[in-house]
Amino acid sequence: MDNTGEDFTTLAINIGLAVATFLLNSGFDRRAILLGEECSVLLNNGNLSNKSPVSKLLHQSILDLKRKVASKLLLLCQDSANNFHKGYLNLILARILRVQNNLVEAKKFYEEAENIMKASGNAKEEAECYSELGTLFDSLSQYDKAQKYQEKALGINIAIGDQNGEAISYENLGTLSLSLGQYDKAREYLEKALAIKKDAGDRDGEATNYGNLDQWKSSNGCIRVVMSRNGMIIHGTKVMMKKVRFHPIRQVVYLTEIHPYVEVEEKMNPWVSPT
């Protein structure tokens, strides 16, 4: 197997990162940032597999460079009157640290960013901080805090009319409620998120929320019943399939009574003659 392309990409990124670090240490911050971005583009579009150890190592090196750049810029603007820049740099650092799985440090920068954005009246960015803090606490299994921050984000997004932010908040609250077994709340939140994405014509957002709703249905033990002229065909979880495999009609009636979230689709099978 010819690895020439992979070797060239690896060499080019390593040289780029070394030069970018030199530029950063020499005070050429903007050039360091631009070169770092070029390295990131080359990694994403080059010949390296995303799952290869070399690719993962280079990705971490690029993140380290970005963290150094953001840390230096934050230090330089400490005496600046521009609070937005300070808040945003804290937010960037929080995101980088989170990707690096340094969640404790990420939390500190998120909270600092949130305090600055709130004090400076940047409501949209304040909501972003709350939303990302919520998902961070969710990943730490601190669900009460996760819900509190998601609800704060939702309130701000509704108040400022940020529909995309509102949909994200509903989606986050829906998946959180799903993990907590609060299925009625989960369905309400996810359907609201889906409605907003539909109105906005966001097809990717629609697809994501349809996937979340499918997860909700599965968590509820929901089964899909397709009716044809030769009887019923059941689609659903393996547990449900086992229950209805041998006596579909009798078991479907039973399951419908104890599971209110059963979908019934009438579908005439053209390959089956009428009885």
From TrEMBL:
<dbReference type="InterPro" id="IPR019734">
    <property type="entry name" value="TPR_rpt"/>
</dbReference>
<keyword id="KW-0802">TPR repeat</keyword>
<feature type="repeat" description="TPR">
    <location>
        <begin position="167"/>
        <end position="200"/>
    </location>
</feature>
<feature type="repeat" description="TPR">
    <location>
        <begin position="127"/>
        <end position="160"/>
    </location>
</feature>
<dbReference type="InterPro" id="IPR011990">
    <property type="entry name" value="TPR-like_helical_dom_sf"/>
</dbReference>
<dbReference type="Pfam" id="PF13424">
    <property type="entry name" value="TPR_12"/>
</dbReference>
<protein>
    <submittedName>
        <fullName>Tetratricopeptide repeat protein 28</fullName>
    </submittedName>
</protein>
